[in-house]
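WARN  no MSA supplied for this record, continuing single-sequence
INFO  ligand: zinc ion
INFO  echoing inputs
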Amino acid sequence: MLVEIRAAGLCGSDIHMLYRKPASERRAEIMRGLTIDPDIICSHEPAGVVADVGPGVTHLSVGDRVAVAHLSGCGVCLSCRRGWDIDCEDKQTYGFDRDGAMADFMLAEARDCAVLPDAVSFTEGAFYACGAGTGYAALKRGGFTAGETVAVVGLGQVGLCAAYFAAAGGARVIAIDPVEERREFALQHGATVALDPTQGDVAEMVSAVNGGRGAHLAIDATGVSAGRRAALDAARTWGRVVMVGFGDDETSIDVGAQIIQKQLTVVGAWVYSTPDLQEMVDDVAARGLSVAPLILHEYTPDQAEQAWKDVDSGSLGKSMVVWPEPATDTPSHSVA
Ligand SMILES: [Zn+2]
Ligand SMILES: [Zn+2]
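INFO  complex generated
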C-alpha cells in the first residue's frame, strides 16, 4: 500500500539508535530482533493519505487518512496474530530497517495502518505512531483508573504523553524530571506537581506532596537506571510500576526492599500493539482529547535537516515535518 505522507515525526530514538549508541553496539537481548539500516529513509512516525492499494486490500481505500504502526511483523506468527508485531522474531521497523516516513510517499503494509478519525490530525496521528502511542499504552498496561495518583519519571515525549493522558483520565499526576523546562511544560499540560529527582530522596519527595503515601501507579519513561529506581521508589505499598523507557542499562535494584516488601506489581511495556493504535485514535477522538498542544515545532520537508539538529539539541515538546495540504482531498499520486 502506498501512503502519501503528510506528517513525519522526529523521535529521540532515531538519533540514539543511529548515532549516539548504534543498534549494532547494543545488547542483543535488549534489541530482540530490532535492527537498524542507516541507509533507509528515516522516521518511524508516519501519517498520510492512502494513495494506492495493492491486490487483496479490502479494508482501506484510496483517500483514507491513516497513521502507520511502525513495527511490521511477519503477520502470521502467534505474536503478530495477537497484534504484537513488536514481539515478532521476523519484524521490520519503518524508519529503522525499512523505508520510513521522511519522504513524499511510503510503502506500508495495509495491516499496519490505523484509520484516523476526522478529529485526529495528521501530526497527531504521526505522534501516536510512536511517542504518544507508547505513553498511552504504558498507562493502559499499568491498569490505570481514574482517581489515582500517577508518578511519571522522565518527561520526554513518552512520559509527557503518559502524564497528559493520566491527567485527562482523572489522575493526580506527579511529574518527575531533572530538567526544569520539562517540568514546567508538564505542569502546563496536566501535571499537578513536578519534582526534581536530584533534589532529594524520591520516595520522600513523592510522599511529601501526596498525603504521606507513594503513587498508585509509577511509570519510568527514562530507560536509565536512575529513572527506573526512582519509579520503584515513587510507588506506594501495593502500587504498580510500568517500565516503558527503552534503554539498554543493566539496572541493579534491591528486589527485597524495592519490590517484595512493597508488594509491588512491576510490568514491562514495549511500545504498543497494532490494534492499540486504532483503539487509541478512536478513543481520543471520542473523548475530545488532543496531543496537538504538545507538538511545538513544525518544519517543512526542506527544513528537515534543521529539524533533526533542533531535536538533537533537546528542543522541548514534539517536532514534526509536515507536508503542505494539497488543494483537494484526493491524493496527488495518480493510480494507474
Ligand atoms: Zn510475526
Ligand atoms: Zn520513536
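The longest helix spans residues 274-287.
INFO  checksum written, moving to next record
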